[in-house]
Design goal:
Elements (H helix, E strand, L loop, with lengths): L4 H17 L25 E3 L1 H4 L2 E10 L5 E9 L5 E10 L5 E2 L7 E5 L4 E7 L7 E8 L4
Parallel strand pairs: 1-8
Antiparallel strand pairs: 2-3, 3-7, 4-5, 4-6, 4-8
């Protein structure tokens, strides 16, 4: 039996709908509706970004805690508001209770990529237990 034109048309339409539904771009994430962990969110944002990156990547939140041995630990959540990959470098700076810079191995630039519409966390741990404050510098890498 030869298929009729309306039958072929409906099968073609169904194939187009199923294919289009599977072409969704973006990042799928799953997380608890009621998180078990409580964040100690930092209200003042000690983060410096260049003007170009600031238009494309937003700071969602900053979480601060004290890790093992009394070392300050900071986690920053970033969101790429564009639809394309962004490449940037970041550097942590740590300060003692008097505001003096603490030089350590964490004082180097680290390159990172963030997909379009993706949310990522950047975590830094102070190089010494004497660190009481921090600053994070974010700079867009325009030479991808």
């Amino acid at each position: 039996m030869k298929p009729s034109f309306p039958h072929l048309l409906s099968l073609s339409l169904l194939a187009v709908v199923l294919t289009a539904g599977g072409c969704k771009t973006g990042v799928n994430t799953v997380e608890r509706a009621q998180p078990m962990a409580t964040r100690d969110m930092v209200s003042d944002k000690r983060i410096i970004t260049d003007a170009s990156l600031n238009k494309k990547v937003q700071i969602i939140g900053i979480n601060q805690s004290t890790g093992p041995g009394g070392f300050l630990k900071v986690q920053v959540e970033l969101l790429n508001t564009t639809g394309s990959v962004k490449t940037f470098s970041y550097r942590w700076e740590w300060f003692d209770e008097h505001g003096n810079v603490i030089i350590g191995p964490a004082s180097v630039d680290v390159m990172r990529h963030i997909e379009g519409k993706e949310s990522v966390f950047i975590t830094g741990t102070a190089p010494r237990e004497t660190a009481k404050d921090f600053r994070l510098k974010l700079i867009e890498n325009l030479r991808n």
